[in-house]
Write a structure and sequence with these properties.
The protein is α/β, with parallel strands linked by helices. The protein has one domain: 3-Layer(aba) Sandwich (Rossmann fold), CATH 3.40.50.300. Helix content is about 60%, strand content about 15%. Strands 2-3-1-4-5 form a five-stranded parallel beta sheet, with helices on both faces. It is globular, with a radius of gyration of 16 Å.
């Protein structure tokens, strides 16, 4: 089973990669969804939950929960490729590499202004409606270690042109790695 982590700042285009991989038969395991599910149980914001989980259980808790989910899929006989969405720290990268020999990381990047405009359009609950909040969220992501993860990537794709060009580049990469 092939496992690829996708990382990038909010609004960079990670979900487009996930959607395209799903069309090719991949299964998506989203670290953000794991945090959102836990936030709902706790009655906290996703930001509070992400911080509190790490304080309570250590830096690796979200990756541990994600690895648990992937291993359960393996135990159930899944042989489809898996996309891990939302890796944010080098601690998480280390855990995935420790648990899965063929783990690779794809980073998606775009400049802040483009990402902010995308977030305004998608209107997800945890997206900021003003640039100050957006910048604060970026800093939180960077404090988790996102920059380090991006530097550890096996491949980086810049998503600042049109959607068709981005999709073409993603298709080429997914073919290259055998997805």
């Amino acid at each position: 089973m092939q496992i690829m982590g996708i990382t990038g700042m909010p609004g960079s285009g990670k979900s487009i990669v996930s959607d395209m991989a799903t069309e090719r038969g991949a299964i998506i395991v989203s670290m953000g969804d794991i945090i959102r599910e836990e936030a709902k149980k706790r009655g906290e914001s996703t930001k509070e939950t992400a911080t509190n989980l790490r304080k309570e259980f250590g830096e690796n808790i979200v990756s541990e929960l994600t690895i648990e989910k992937i291993k359960k899929l393996e135990a159930e006989g899944n042989e489809k490729p898996i996309i891990v969405e939302g890796i944010r720290s080098h601690h998480e990268v280390a855990m995935f590499k420790e648990n899965f020999d063929n783990f690779i990381i794809l980073s998606i990047s775009a400049n802040p202004q483009i990402r902010f405009e995308r977030l305004l359009k998608r209107m997800r609950e945890d997206d900021s409606k003003d640039y100050e909040g957006f910048a604060k969220r970026d800093n939180t992501e960077l404090d988790f270690g996102m920059g380090h993860v991006i530097s550890l990537s096996d491949k980086m794709i810049i998503n600042e042109s049109d959607l068709e060009s981005f999709r073409q580049e993603i298709n080429e990469y997914l073919e290259e790695i055998g997805f």
